[in-house]
Amino acid sequence: MSAMHWIAALLRLRPQTGYVNPQIISTRVTPRPALPALTEDLMTLKAYIVEDNAVIRDNLVETLGEVLGVETVGHSSTESDACRWLDQHPKDWDMLILDLFLAQGTGLGVLQKCGHHRKNQRVVVLSNYATEEVRKRCLVNGADAVFDKSTEIDLFLQYCSH
Length: 162
Prior knowledge:
Layout: H1 3-13, H2 22-25, E1 46-50, H3 54-68, E2 71-76, H4 79-88, E3 95-98, H5 107-114, E4 122-127, H6 132-140, E5 145-148, H7 153-161
Parallel strand pairs: 1-2, 1-3, 3-4, 4-5
């Protein structure tokens, strides 16, 4: 399935309830803005993806690459592999994309252990379990934004494009 077909399929499944703004959850937790828009003068945005579902991961890599020109510099399916890679490559990524439920460990564990990042890097949680409580916990633990992968894929892509 091509990236455009994948996005179109996800958008058709999206309920019309809209986006839950993380700022509504707590006035003390404010998500960081998206990265500045890339220009031809700047290098390609580099993403590291932590997702245990190979089909979702492959579609995400394809979509980010085809639609936004994002280069995926690596991926892992476990908390320990993600933390090891992030420790070894602290400057080799611009955006970290995390699922919460992994083959081993959790995305929240990655946030807690390895969520410290530079000001020009963004950590985005993309999960099917983006409840208000989960959003709050992710933002408090270092995520810059949280999106529901089944209902907010368009908002996620918009965030990645800026």
